[in-house]
Design goal:
The complex is a heterodimer of chains A (about 850) and B (about 140).
Chain A (H helix, E strand, L loop, with lengths): L5 E5 L3 H14 L4 E6 L20 H4 L4 H6 L2 E5 L3 E5 L4 E4 L4 E3 L2 E4 L3 E3 L12 E3 L3 H18 L5 E5 L3 H12 L3 E6 L11 H13 L2 E5 L3 E9 L2 E9 L4 E3 L2 E4 L3 E3 L2 H5 L10 E3 L10 E3 L4 E3 L7 H15 L13 E5 L2 E7 L8 E7 L4 E8 L2 E8 L5 H9 L7 H5 L6 H4 L7 E3 L4 E2 H9 L5 H8 L9 H14 L16 H11 L4 H8 L8 H13 L21 E2 L5 E3 L10 H14 L2 E4 L5 E6 L4 H10 L12 E6 L13 H12 L8 E6 L13 E5 L4 E5 L11 E7 L1 H18 L6 H7 L3 H9 L7 H14 L3 H7 L1 H4 L13 E2 L2 E4 L2 E4 L7
Parallel strand pairs in A: 1-2, 1-7, 2-3, 7-19, 9-16, 10-11, 10-16, 11-12, 18-20, 32-33, 33-34
Antiparallel strand pairs in A: 4-5, 5-6, 8-17, 13-14, 14-15, 21-22, 22-25, 23-24, 24-25, 26-27, 28-29, 29-31, 30-31, 34-35, 35-36, 38-39
Helix pairs in contact in A: 1-8, 12-14, 15-17, 19-25, 21-24
Chain B lengths: L2 E2 L7 E3 L5 E8 L9 E5 L2 E8 L8 E6 L14 E5 L6 E5 L6 E3 L15 E2 L1 E4 L2 E7 L4
Classes of the chains: A alpha/beta (about 850), B mainly beta (about 140).
Bound molecules: flavin-adenine dinucleotide, protoporphyrin IX containing FE and iron/sulfur cluster.
Chain lengths: ~850, ~140
C-alpha cells in the first residue's frame, strides 16, 4: 500500500478514535487526517457509559484530546454525518453538502441499537441506550415524568435481556423506577449464557429487585394522553398480558451502520457489516472498515477489543507495516451489575463434550467448563470468575489443560498452584495486552499501577483486568526482590492494619510507646493522627490526655471543627434528629448570646459557627446543661444516624425508625474509626432517610430490618449493598457491631467503608463469612471490643468540663487569658460570617 | 486579618547583645511536649513548641509566628508537630492546621510552598520560666 496523503475517518467512536491515535503517533505529519463524527462531541468511553449515571462527567468519559491531536495535524468535524461516498471521485459528501476528497477512507461508523418494529415503538418515552445523548434524554424523561406523577413510583421497562439490557435496567433502577426486563427468549443473555448459567444470573437479578419476564413477546407499545401530550403507558404481550411502563428502553441487539457503504456498492456481509479482509480493506483498496461496522470472516464483533486490534493493524498497514487482523475470539469477562460474568470459547453445551460443572445456588455461583478429548474448549462462569485467565488460555491452547476440575471449584486451586501462566496469555482483552507485555514494562522500570497502565494501556478499558494486573505487578516485583511499599509514612514501615494489630497486641496506650517500639523520628501529620485514632478505637480514653494531646489533628485538637478563619463550630448530638422544643430554644439562645451563625445540616442536626477557642467550654457548658452532648462532628467517628418519622406518625411506616436510629446512635457515639461513619434508618421501603447512601443503613420491613453496608455520598457516591434481610433487633445490632469493628481493624487510614469494601477480596460473600459465619474466628474479639467501647463511652465535652485542668487548655494565649484575637466579620442575611478571603481589614 | 484586643502585662529585660528583649511567657511545665501554645510577645502572637527528645536529639524549644502565612488566621500553635529526615539531620516541623503546609520549626521555611515563610523567635529557659525574644526596635 502506498503512502496516503489525506486520510478521512468516518465516525469518531471508540475504534475510530483509537485508529487516529495509532496513525498519528506512527505517521506524524506525513499524513493529513480529517475525522467526521456524527455526535456533537469527540469520542468517549462507551464501555463505561453507565458510569455517567453514577456521576462520571462528560469530561471523565472523554477519550479524545482534541487540542493535542489538532496540534498534530488532525482536523475534527463534530456534529457532521457522511451521507454519500463517491468512489470514482474519491470523495465523501457531508450532510451539510460539503464535499471532501480522500486518498484513503476509513469507515468506523459502529452500530446502532436495533429497535423491533412493533407498533408504538416510537411513542414518546421510548429510548435506546447507546450514546451520551440517549442517557441525557432518559434522565430528563424520568425526571419529567416523576414530577408529573407525584407520589406514584415510576415503572421502567427494558426490552431485551442481554448484556446491555441488564446495564440499562440497572440505570433505570438507580433512577428510582420499579424496573422490569422483558426478554423474548426463555433465558437472560441468550447469546452468551446457557440455560443453567442464565438461571443463576437470574437469581442475581432477582436479588437486585429487577423483575424479569422471560418468553415475553412484545406485541405493542401502548400510550396514553397525559395532560394533552402522548406518553408511553405500557407493553402488551402476545398473550394479552400488560406491563405498566412510564419509560421503555430498547436493547434488543445492535446492527452495523453500513448504509453509506452499501449505497456505494461495497460488499455487505450476510448478517450485516462491511466485508473486510485481513488488512481491514474492503473490495475497494482505498476504503477500509474497522470496529463494529466491519464484517471479518463472516462475523461482526460487538466488543471494543477486536475493534482496537483492527485499528492498530490498519494504522500499521497504512504506514508501511504488514500487521493483520485475523479475527478475535469473543471471550469476555465482565462485571455486570457488580456480578462477575465470563464466557470463553465454545459456550454452548455440545453433544460429545464433557462438562465440568460447579453450581451453588446459595451463593449464586455457577461455573461450567466444556472439555473435548481432555482439553478445555470453552466455558461459562457466573458469580465468580476466578481462574478465568487460566481456563481461557487452556481453551485457546496457549496453556496445557491440567487440573481442570480443581480450577473449576471456586475455592479450589488458584492458577499459581498449577503452573505459571505463559507470557503469551492475554491479560487485558480490551487493549489486547499480554502478560509478557506487562512483564517487559516492569523490567523497563514501571513499579506501580499508574505507570504500568499508561505504559501498556492494560486496564484502561473496562477495568475488569485491574485486579489481575495488580496481582501480576506484586508477584513480579516480589520475584525481582523489590519490596512492595505499604508503609504508612516515613516514620512507620507498617501499614495501618499492621500497626493496629501491634498496638492491640502490645496493649500500647501512649504515643511514646508506639513510636519508640515501632517507629522513628518525631512522626508527622500522617502517622500522628493515625496512631491517635488507633489508640482511641482501642482504649476510648480522653483524647487530649497525656501525649495523645500532641497527636490530634486540626479538629480533634480542640474537639471542634476549625473553620477557615481559625474559629470553630459547635455541633451537639441530636440522636436520630429528634430534639425537644426546650433544647431547640436553648440552642437558639446560645447562638444569640455568642453571636454564632446557625445552619441546619444535611445530617439532621444544628451547627453553630464562629466560636473562638476560649468560648468553647462556655458554650458546651450550656449545651450539656440542656441535656445534649458532643456530636463528634470533629472526629473520624460516628456522625449522625439520620431517621425518618417512621410508624409513630407516618401513614406508610412499618417500624419505629426513630427509636432504632436513637438506639444505634447512642451505641456507636464516640467510636473512633479510620474515617467518619454515617448511618440512617428508614421506616419503610420508601426510604425517606436515604439509608442506602450511608456506611451502614437500615430499612424497615414488615417483619424486621434490612441492613445495607458500605455506601457513601461525597465525591464518588456509592449505593450501599444489601447485606442481610429481615433481621430482628438484636441480630441487626450484633451484625453492625462486627461490621464496624472489622472495618476499624483492617481499613487503611482515611479509608471510608465503601473504598475499604471495594478492596475486600471476595466482597459481600467474604464479609458475610467473616462477620456472620466467623470464618476467621475473630467474632468473639470483635464483640468484646465493641462491648468495651459501649461500656466506657463518655461525652468528651462533659469530660473536659469535669476537670478544670482540661478546661484550662482552652485559652487562646497562655500568658494572657483575657486577651483574644478578633477575626474580621461581615453580615450576610442577618447572620455573622467571616470576611471573604483577601478582604481588607 | 486579626487584631489583638488587649495587650498582656509582661516583664522584660534586655539581652546582653541588645538585639532582643526577653519576655517571660510562663512556667516551662505549663507547656506540654509536642503540643504548641500561643502567647502574646510584645503584642505579637507567637506559637511556642516544646519538642520531646527523640533518637539522638535532646528536648528542643522553638517559637514561630502564630499567624498562618497562607490564610492570616491565628492558628499555628494548634498545628501538628513532626519531623522530616533521618539522623543526623532530623528537622522538627509543624503543619498548619488549616491547609497543612509544613514548616521547618528552626528556620520558618515552608517545606511545601516556596512563597510561604514563618517568622521565628529565639526561646530560652530561665529559672524554670520560658522566655521568648522580641526584636528590639532600634531608634
Ligand atoms: C452501554 C454499553 C456498554 C458496553 N460495554 C462493553 C464492554 O463492557 N466491553 C466491550 O468490549 N464492549 C462494550 N460495549 C461495546 C463497545 O462500546 C463498542 O464495541 C465500541 O464502542 C465500538 O466502537 P466503534 O468505534 O466501532 O463504534 P461506536 O463507538 O459506536 O462509534 C461509531 C461512531 O460513528 C458515528 N457515525 C456513524 N455513522 C456515521 C456517519 N455516516 N458519519 C459520521 N459519523 C458516523 C456514530 O455517531 C458514532 O459516534 C458497550 C456498549 C454500550 C453501548
Ligand atoms: C413513593 C415514595 C415516597 C413517599 C410516599 C414518601 C412519603 C413521605 C412522607 C409521608 C414524608 C413525611 C413524613 C412526615 O410526615 O413528616 C416524607 C418525608 C421525607 N421524604 Fe419521602 N416519600 C417517598 C419517597 C422519598 C424519596 C425517594 C426520598 C429521598 C430519596 C424521600 C425523602 C424524604 C425526606 C428527606 C423526608 C423528610 C423531609 C423533611 O426533612 O422534612 N422520600 N416522605
Ligand atoms: S420511609 Fe419513613 S417517612 Fe418515608 S414513607 Fe416510610 S415510614 Fe414514612
Amino acid at each position: 500500500m502506498s503512502d496516503p496523503q489525506h486520510v478521512v475517518v468516518v465516525g469518531n467512536g471508540m475504534v475510530g478514535q483509537r485508529f487516529v491515535e495509532e496513525l498519528s503517533s506512527r505517521a506524524g505529519s506525513d499524513v493529513r487526517v480529517t475525522v467526521i463524527g456524527e455526535e456533537p462531541v469527540g469520542a468517549y468511553d462507551r464501555v463505561a457509559l453507565s458510569s455517567w449515571f453514577d456521576g462520571a462527567t462528560d469530561a471523565d468519559l472523554s477519550l479524545c484530546d482534541v487540542d493535542a491531536l489538532s496540534a498534530a495535524g488532525v482536523e475534527f468535524r463534530f456534529g457532521r454525518r457522511v451521507d454519500n461516498i463517491d468512489r470514482t471521485q474519491h470523495s465523501v459528501v457531508l450532510d451539510d453538502g460539503d464535499r471532501l476528497g480522500y486518498d484513503h477512507l476509513v469507515l468506523a461508523t459502529g452500530s446502532s441499537p436495533f429497535v423491533p418494529p412493533v407498533p408504538g415503538h416510537d411513542a414518546p418515552g421510548c429510548f435506546v441506550y447507546r450514546t451520551l445523548e440517549d442517557l441525557r434524554a432518559i434522565r430528563e424523561w424520568v425526571q419529567q415524568r416523576a414530577a408529573q406523577c407525584g407520589d406514584r413510583e415510576l415503572s421502567g421497562v427494558v426490552v431485551g435481556g442481554g448484556l446491555l439490557g441488564l446495564e440499562a435496567a440497572n440505570a433505570l433502577k438507580n433512577l428510582g423506577t420499579t424496573t422490569h426486563v422483558v426478554e423474548m427468549a426463555e433465558r437472560l443473555m441468550p447469546q452468551q449464557l446457557d440455560v443453567d448459567a442464565s438461571a443463576m444470573l437470574r437469581r442475581w437479578v432477582d436479588s437486585m429487585d429487577i423483575t424479569t419476564h422471560l418468553g415475553f413477546a412484545t406485541q405493542q407499545i401502548e400510550s396514553i394522553d397525559a395532560a394533552g401530550t402522548e406518553v408511553v403507558s405500557g407493553l402488551r404481550g402476545a398473550d394479552g398480558s400488560f406491563i405498566d411502563a412510564d419509560i421503555v428502553v430498547f436493547s434488543a441487539g445492535i446492527r452495523p451502520r453500513h448504509q453509506v457503504a452499501q449505497e456505494c456498492g461495497l460488499d455487505i456481509g450476510e448478517r450485516g457489516g462491511v466485508v473486510i479482509d485481513d488488512t481491514c480493506t474492503t473490495v475497494d483498496p482505498a476504503i477500509s472498515a474497522i470496529g463494529e461496522v466491519a464484517c471479518h470472516g463472516g462475523r461482526t464483533f460487538g466488543l471494543v477489543g477486536p475493534g482496537y486490534a483492527m485499528a492498530k493493524a490498519l494504522a500499521e498497514q497504512l504506514t508501511g507495516g504488514n500487521a493483520t487482523f485475523e479475527g478475535a475470539d469473543l471471550s469476555t469477562k465482565l462485571k455486570l451489575l457488580g456480578v462477575d460474568v465470563a464466557s470463553f470459547g465454545e459456550t454452548a453445551v455440545i453433544e460429545g463434550h464433557d462438562q465440568v460443572v460447579f453450581a451453588d445456588p446459595t451463593t449464586k455461583v455457577f461455573r461450567r467448563v466444556a472439555m473435548s478429548d481432555g482439553a478445555v474448549v470453552g466455558g461459562v462462569l457466573v458469580g465468580d470468575a476466578t481462574n478465568f485467565d487460566a481456563l481461557h488460555a487452556m481453551s485457546t491452547g496457549a496453556m496445557a489443560s491440567k487440573n481442570v476440575a480443581a480450577l473449576v471449584l471456586p475455592d479450589g486451586l488458584s492458577v499459581a498452584d498449577v503452573a505459571e501462566l505463559p507470557d503469551s496469555v492475554q491479560l487485558c482483552s480490551c487493549n489486547n495486552v499480554l502478560r509478557g507485555d506487562v512483564k517487559t514494562a516492569i523490567d523497563a522500570g514501571c513499579q506501580d499501577l499508574a505507570s504500568l497502565k499508561s505504559e501498556t494501556t492494560a486496564g484502561t478499558g473496562c477495568g475488569g483486568c485491574l485486579p489481575g494486573l495488580a496481582a501480576l505487578l506484586e508477584s513480579e516485583l516480589e520475584q525481582r526482590g523489590i519490596e512492595v511499599d505499604r508503609s504508612l509514612c516515613a516514620h512507620f514501615a507498617h501499614s495501618r492494619q499492621e500497626l493496629f494489630d501491634l498496638v492491640r497486641f502490645h496493649r500500647h496506650t501512649t504515643w511514646a510507646e508506639v513510636i519508640s517500639a515501632h517507629g522513628t523520628g518525631r512522626g508527622c501529620e500522617i502517622c500522628r493522627p493515625t496512631v491517635a485514632s488507633i489508640l482511641a478505637s482501642l482504649s476510648n480514653g480522653y483524647v487530649l490526655d497525656g501525649d495523645q494531646a500532641g497527636l490530634q489533628d486540626t479538629n480533634d485538637h480542640a474537639l471542634a471543627n476549625m473553620q477557615r478563619n481559625g474559629t470553630y463550630s459547635v455541633v451537639p448530638r441530636v440522636p436520630g434528629g429528634e430534639i425537644t422544643p426546650e433544647q431547640l430554644i436553648e440552642l437558639g439562645a446560645i447562638a444569640q448570646d455568642f453571636d454564632l451563625y446557625v445552619k441546619i445540616t444535611g445530617a439532621q442536626r444544628i451547627d453553630l459557627f464562629g466560636a473562638q477557642l476560649h468560648e468553647l467550654p462556655l458554650i458546651w457548658r450550656r449545651v450539656i446543661d440542656a441535656g445534649m452532648e458532643s456530636g463528634h462532628a470533629y472526629g473520624k467517628a460516628l456522625r449522625t444516624v439520620k431517621s425518618c418519622v417512621g410508624d409513630t406518625w407516618c401513614r406508610y411506616g412499618v417500624q419505629d425508625s426513630v427509636t432504632m436510629a436513637i438506639e444505634i446512635e447512642r451505641r456507636y457515639r464516640g467510636l473512633r474509626a479510620p474515617h467518619k461513619l454515617k448511618s440512617a434508618v428508614s421506616g419503610c421501603t420508601r426510604e425517606c432517610a436515604e439509608a442506602q447512601s450511608k456506611d451502614f443503613g437500615v430499612i424497615a420491613t414488615e417483619v424486621g430490618w434490612n441492613l445495607y453496608l458500605a455506601g457513601n455520598g461525597g465525591r464518588v457516591p456509592r449505593h450501599a449493598e444489601l447485606f442481610a434481610a429481615d433481621l430482628d433487633d438484636d441480630t441487626l445490632i450484633r451484625t453492625i457491631d462486627r461490621f464496624l469493628m472489622f472495618y476499624i481493624r483492617t481499613a487503611d487510614r482515611l479509608e471510608r467503608t465503601s473504598t475499604w469494601f471495594e478492596k475486600l477480596d471476595g466482597g459481600m460473600e467474604y464479609l458475610r463469612s467473616v462477620i456472620v459465619d466467623d470464618a476467621l474466628g475473630i467474632c468473639d474479639e470483635l464483640d468484646a471490643d465493641m462491648a468495651a467501647h459501649v461500656e466506657t463511652y463518655e461525652c468528651e465535652w462533659a469530660a473536659t468540663l469535669a476537670d478544670p485542668a482540661r478546661a484550662a487548655e482552652f485559652v487562646e494565649f497562655v500568658n494572657a487569658p483575657e486577651a483574644t484575637s478578633t477575626p474580621v466579620w461581615v453580615t450576610e442575611r442577618g447572620q455573622r460570617i467571616p470576611a471573604p478571603a483577601g478582604a481588607s481589614t | 486579618m486579626t487584631a489583638i484586643e488587649q495587650d498582656p502585662v509582661t516583664t522584660s529585660e534586655s539581652d546582653s547583645a541588645g538585639a532582643v528583649s526577653w519576655v517571660t511567657v510562663c512556667a516551662a511545665d505549663r507547656i506540654r511536649r509536642d503540643r504548641g501554645v500561643a502567647a502574646l510577645v510584645a503584642g505579637q502572637p507567637v506559637a511556642i513548641f516544646r519538642l520531646s527528645p527523640v533518637d539522638a536529639e535532646p528536648e528542643e524549644w522553638c517559637a514561630v509566628s502564630h499567624i498562618d502565612p497562607d490564610t492570616g488566621s491565628p492558628v499555628m500553635a494548634r498545628g501538628l508537630v513532626g519531623s522530616v529526615g533521618n539522623p543526623p539531620l532530623v528537622i522538627p516541623t509543624v503543619a498548619s492546621p488549616i491547609y497543612k503546609q509544613r514548616y521547618n520549626l528552626r528556620t520558618g521555611a515552608c517545606l511545601d510552598r516556596a512563597d510561604l515563610r514563618l517568622e521565628t523567635f529565639p526561646v530560652r529557659l530561665h529559672d524554670g520560666q520560658v522566655e521568648v525574644g522580641a526584636p528590639v526596635m532600634s531608634a
